Amino acid sequence: MTPAVPGSAGGRELPLDFAPRLIAWQRQHGRHGLPWQQTRDPYRVWLSEVMLQQTQVSTVLAYYPRFLAAFPTVQALAQASSDQVMALWAGLGYYSRARNLHRCAQAVVAEHGGVFPSSAQQLRTLPGIGASTAAAIAAFCHGERVSIVDGNVRRVLSRLLAFDQDLAQVASQRALWDLAQGLLPEVPSPDDMVAYTQGLMDLGATVCLRSKPLCERCPVNSLCAAQAANAVGQYPVKSKAVKRRHESWWLLVLRLRPPETDDTAERFWLQRRPAPGIWAGLYCPPVFASEELLTAALSTHAAEDVQHLGPVAHSLTHRELRLHPVVVTTALDQPVDSDGSWVNASELADLGLPTPVRALYRRLP
Ligand code: SF4
Prior knowledge:
Blueprint: H1 18-29, H2 42-52, H3 57-70, H4 74-79, H5 82-89, H6 96-112, H7 120-123, H8 131-142, H9 151-160, H10 170-183, H11 190-206, H12 225-228, E1 245-256, E2 267-272, E3 283-284, E4 287-288, H13 291-297, E5 303-308, E6 312-315, E7 319-330, E8 341-344, H14 355-362
Parallel strand pairs: 1-7
Antiparallel strand pairs: 1-2, 1-4, 2-3, 2-8, 5-7, 6-7
Helix pairs in contact: 1-11, 2-3, 2-8, 8-11, 9-11
The structure holds iron/sulfur cluster.
Iron/sulfur cluster binds next to α9 and α12.
């Protein structure tokens, strides 16, 4: 058995032979015939990655070509109506993915000239693109040296490294991500990154299975710390997550833009959060429980421009908030309800705003 040799990530020993073995195995034994593997077009790769997030490959195989036939380019998807997009997504489930997909296409067209950004870091700024999806697109399409770490990959790497930290904790997920970066091939060609990234996916999907992993067929079994300790069943370590309630909040970011002839600053409608409750006493845009309620509240406003920003996840002790900011620009100096006041943009810095709301105003276009 080959012992792990010292690596360079966080002072922890890493099996440096992992990447070459995985690449060689993927080229010979991995999956090669999936339709989204025949392209390096970021639009097609992104579409497949989003569809595969919570859906089996066998199901995606039916939806992917239909979707592409209807929307062959990111421009076509951006121009489609949400009804058209939802109709083609129907049956795939997790419909927020479809809404984000549509918004992301619109953002790529409006903000990036119809071309997906090439780095994982930039891709992560787009609606619905998380760290692992961004890494997959950047590695597959541009050969970027960056690691995917989705649920399957976490399972593989936690066994390989006998990683005993609790993966229910965000800090542990970050630590494993650092180790995943340390395992990457040292100076990979773009083709190496394609094989490596696909290899991680294939290993998790076909060999290092959740229950009853096929260790005897595994290309890295002689490097695997869990296997060496006969403790594969102990990994990944994941405590039962604290039960948190999930809530979606729709934030109406109402922006009053003065006429060009007027030199007053733009203003925002803010309300003080009621007590008791979340963010009690802080200032916040009006909150609605659904997009429909937000739209209804706006019915008297002639909005010049309505922009959906990508959703923002925010964890509280007993709640997981998903914030959906909708930026509405208007010239009508009229509130949406009696509660609240207009605040000059320049005064926002001095106001008590919840952290994600402050961040939201900072990233307003
Ligand atoms: Fe997973 Fe077994 Fe391979 Fe270890 S040896 S990575 S547990 S399949």
